[in-house]
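Hi there,

I know you've been waiting on this one. I reran it after we fixed the sequence typo, so this is the corrected version. Both the input and the resulting structure follow.
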Amino acid sequence: MPATDPETDLALLIRAAEIAGDTASRYSGPDARKWDKPDGAGPVTEADLAVNAALADLLPAARPDYGWLSEETEDNTDRLSHERLFIIDPIDGTRSFAEGSRTWAHALAVADRGRITAAVIYLPQRELMYTAAVGEGAKCNGTAITISPRVDLENAEILAARPMQDPVHWLDGNVPPFRRSHRPSLAYRMARVADARFDGMLTLRPSWEWDIAAGDLILREAGGRCSDRFGRDLRFNNPHPTLNGVVAAAPSLHRQLIAALAPKSPGLRPL
């Protein structure tokens, strides 16, 4: 018999995301036990922990040489010794999940020496599965997606929280007159830019790697540019797993956003 082809990292992440969706769906968000993490780190539910446990059983067993970074696993320095690692957000948008909203996601990625090489963002309640692997393009539910071609910032629709409209964050206090929208899950925001539903997104606050790792690759494979708030490429598996915000859009629009931002504006509330 011919040898069976080994499962690719992307195929593994898709399988894991489906398991995550099945696990989360066993819980009703408003009825799931919920509590606040220490040090103002936000809420967590029993569903977050159940999904994390399911993924922690599956993924490291499939790739024992990969490191592990997850929002719901206590971090340690072991991951820094691995060239490749999983970066996982079991449920991105926990508040929305707990409120009974459908807008929450499972975000799964593989990083190789600091760069994301395979990624999945899955919204089981919206039946949306965003996927990407390096050099293979980005897809939603198996269909190729491409970022918005818009080039004029003034007419762009940008996903950003309301504080982004404070003049203090913009060069000379000039807030660009783009249309602002918002979605609760950062991973979902990045996916909706990748599929051209919105023209760009930005957040200036320090951001956890697990919130943005999967979206970084999906956006880039859709033809977009994704950077920190200073325009620098995103690098992952840092000793402290945060990055200086995210700015994402088509390359021309991305350049305009970076140029319009104040280079030394105060950051928002740190994580």
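Quick highlight: The two ends are 53 Å apart (CA to CA).

Best,
R. S.
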